[in-house]
């Protein structure tokens, strides 16, 4: 039985698996254009966790999506699983949609709500930061 605080997930084909052995620091819906484009969806939900709490098996392919951050994908099935940024080297971001049990986490905020597409309505009561509250991964190129 996994620990109550342990979260597990992975890519669609199962080549990449991860385990997060402590509560993530924060869970954010990111509406930035990079996350939108890379996911092909309206927005992307991230778990941000201390690097040492994340164990990854398999070999993600890292794509430099900006000068300061890269995003990890499965080379076989294309699932976007991870991201890491020079702006916060002690943390990794994990896509919440790749969790085995996504119902176990609760999003806490929106970031880059100012870049949100017009056809997504924020109807929850979470804080909605216009830009990036604390997630430099999503800072837009000038
Ligand atoms: Zn895969
Ligand atoms: Zn983003």
Features:
seven-stranded mixed beta sheet; mainly beta; binds zinc ion; Metal Binding Protein, Guanine Nucleotide Exchange Factor, Chain A; 142 residues; three-stranded antiparallel beta sheet
Structure description:
The protein has 142 residues and is mainly beta. The protein has a single domain, classed as Metal Binding Protein, Guanine Nucleotide Exchange Factor, Chain A. Helix content is 5%, strand content 33%. Strands 6-7-8-9-4-3-10 form a 7-stranded mixed β-sheet. The longest helix has 7 residues, at 33-39. The mean pLDDT is 89. It binds zinc ion (ZN) (2 copies).
Distance between the termini: 47 Å
The second-level CATH architecture is Beta Complex
Overall mean confidence score, pLDDT: 89
DSSP summary, beta strand count: 10
Uncertain residue segments:
none
Q: Helical content, roughly?
A: under 10%
Radius of gyration of CA atoms, rounded to a whole number: 14 Å
> Into how many domains do the coordinates divide?
1
